[in-house]
Amino acid sequence: MKKIFYSSILIMFALFTVNTQAQTQPSENTNYVVLTRKVPQLKPILLAAQELAKQDGHHFGDFQVVVCGKAVQNLTNEEMMKDFISQAGQANVTINACGFSLKKFGVDREKLHQSLNVVENGILYNFELQKKGYLSIEL
């Protein structure tokens, strides 16, 4: 009887210790990447990033947007991009242009706003981020 009693207490203690350790370990940040082919989609993407930052709180990590395809031509349009760039800066969102698309559609990298990054292959970059655990969506 004593063995059962002590065994039960030992099991309960072990379960309580494991549960407490799981609750006190910090969880990792959640990172996001969005691949888009339309610059106007930056508005809902940035709104989503702001909302996710609120929901995730201090677990909100990195948020990357990759613009691919013909849409890269619009990235040099200062009037079109100024609000997006401002909102992205406030939301800590990085906007990237696909280097392959820039080359294909003859967009001069020097004409891009200084806050925009260029990744050589947007699709490959997206996959690399997914391999690092980023949540991904393509629009």
Tags for this model:
48% helix; Hypothetical Protein Ychn, Chain: A; 20% strand; 5 strands; alpha/beta
Task: Lay out the secondary structure.
Blueprint: H1 2-24, E1 30-36, H2 42-56, E2 60-67, H3 78-90, E3 93-98, H4 99-104, E4 117-119, H5 122-131, E5 135-138
Parallel strand pairs: 1-2, 1-5, 2-3, 3-4
Signal peptide: 1-22
Organism: Salinimicrobium profundisediminis
Keywords: Signal
Protein model, in words:
With 139 residues, the protein is α/β, with parallel strands linked by helices. The protein has one domain: DsrEFH-like (Hypothetical Protein Ychn, Chain: A), CATH 3.40.1260.10. The chain has five helices and five strands, in the order H-E-H-E-H-E-H-E-H-E. The chain has a five-stranded parallel beta sheet with strand order 4-3-2-1-5, sandwiched between helices. Strand 3, helix 4 and strand 4 form a beta-alpha-beta unit. The longest helix has 23 residues. The chain is globular, with a radius of gyration of 23 Å. It starts with a helix and ends with a strand. About 16% of the residues have low confidence.
The 3D shape can be described as: globular
* Percentage of residues assigned to helices: 40-55%
Count the beta strands.
5
How much of the polypeptide forms β-strand, as a percent range? 15-25%
How do the strands of the widest beta sheet line up side by side?
4-3-2-1-5
Sketch the major β-sheet: 5 strands, parallel
- Average per-residue pLDDT, rounded, comes to 85
Taking pLDDT < 50 over at least 5 consecutive residues as the criterion, the unreliable ranges are: 5-26
User: What is the chain-wise order of helices and strands?
Assistant: HEHEHEHEHE
CATH superfamily assignment? DsrEFH-like
Distance between the termini: 65 Å
The CATH architecture can be given as 3-Layer(aba) Sandwich
Classified by CATH, the class is: Alpha Beta
Number of domains: 1
| Secondary-structure class | alpha/beta
Radius of gyration: 23 Å
